[in-house]
């Protein structure tokens, strides 16, 4: 915990935390906020009386945010207390976290509406709150427009004298020790997706690059009409796969230099050895290492670089943990292209921090057997529930071959949880796109159409909603039914 006082830098938002000490709630919230870029806890309290006393002792001009959790001891209700506080300190942003807001109760609706009337818009309700939720509350300031559901419910209460179940408020919860029942080490972060494989050469980097590019280019915009921000991270310290596929390289800002910076603030055992200012500088440098892809500017790439033997020896898994956790709240989606070996230094942190792991598999029976054995290891590590499989280089048309496969995609689907099948693409097409630094998902040729459809469907089903499915369907219809497509176009012209 941090005591009140100390010099505050101008690039920090200062936060005062009010929460109960129960179950280390206060300590946990302080730790999360203090480790969030550009935010600093300058005071804390566990009762209303203590809160007002410490606020008076603290220079209020340095006080930006009050993070208030329902349940602290006091003479007033939280609603009344916060309304009074906001009227006194109008420039302070108040974040209110509660689990006691029953939206069927008229009194609840009236109380929440009074907060909105006084300029308190950041209201979070639910049974638990995670680290990601806290960071999101800090960084995404709600407006009165974000609370229209409460306003509508309040109008109904004023007319009928009661709330209604017809509308549920879009407010989100009270804090419990994050992931207390399910540690983050096994659950992972919701926005981190790993693409891996057991056997090199199955197309792991091809898949990860195309998935990341697809989300950034065609992903459905968020509520603020902004395209999702996507990070593609090289997880293999021994190759240059991601940078090569996208033609991105920088000798000064890359995975190696980022890890070098991390090594200045944590030691080989993961212990903190840096000051707050040093940590801030390291995190800024890490963000600088994410380079935008020229063709899709909301796709940011942390590419690899050549690593010497001595540099390899100096890297440890804690550094990669630190790197990933430094940026997990900076992007909507993070795609990590991992090494094929479980013994690789980054593989463990990647698998543990990810929410979903896609293992790329092909119809090579040796590869299939290796994946069958590998599943036992994933089960032992408690990671098997995260793993899904993507079949790459699938042979769908056997008309040009003399034999059919004895072990086909149908047989594979019985043994593995296959979420998508990407058809084989002519090798000359793949090589040409590689030379151009252009992922197949950005292509417009008929040779890549079915692969683009398959990639889009995987993304839409498993990660993010997509805007290009209709366009791909039209493209498919034009190829499969050219006469019909031309007729439709002609009729459409005459209708105009």
Summarize the structure in words.
This protein is α/β, with parallel strands linked by helices. The chain folds into 2 domains: 13-160, Response regulator (Rossmann fold, 3-Layer(aba) Sandwich); 184-465, Rossmann fold (3-Layer(aba) Sandwich). The protein has 20 helices and 13 strands. The strands form 2 sheets. The protein has an 8-stranded mixed sheet, with helices on both faces. Helix 10 runs antiparallel to helix 11 (276-288), helix 18 packs antiparallel against helix 19 (469-480) and helix 19 (469-480) crosses helix 20 (482-495). The chain is globular, with a radius of gyration of 26 Å. Residues 1-10, 162-186 and 489-496 have low confidence and may be disordered.
Strand and helix map with partners:
Blueprint (H helix, E strand, L loop, with lengths): L12 E6 L6 H10 L4 E7 L2 H10 L7 E5 L8 H11 L4 E6 L7 H12 L4 E4 L5 H9 L8 H13 L23 H4 L1 E8 L7 H15 L11 E6 L5 H6 L8 H8 L13 H13 L2 E3 L2 E7 L6 H6 L2 H11 L5 E6 L8 H7 E8 L3 H16 L6 E8 L14 H7 L2 E6 L3 H10 L12 H14 L6 H12 L1 H14 L1
Parallel strand pairs: 1-2, 1-3, 3-4, 4-5, 6-10, 6-11, 7-9, 7-10, 11-12, 12-13
Antiparallel strand pairs: 8-9
SS field, number of helical segments: 20
Poorly predicted runs are 1-10, 162-186, 489-496
* Number of E-type strands: 13
Oligomer: single chain
**Tertiary shape:** globular
Radius of gyration, CA atoms, in whole angstroms: 26 Å
| Main pleated sheet | 8 strands, mixed
Number of domains: 2
Please bin the fraction of helical residues: 40-55%
- CATH class wording of the largest domain: Alpha Beta
- What is the CATH homology-level superfamily of the largest domain? P-loop containing nucleotide triphosphate hydrolases
**Secondary structure category:** alpha/beta
Can you name the CATH architecture of the largest domain? 3-Layer(aba) Sandwich
Task: Tell me the strand order in the biggest sheet.
Answer: 8-9-7-10-6-11-12-13
N- and C-termini, Cα separation:
69 Å
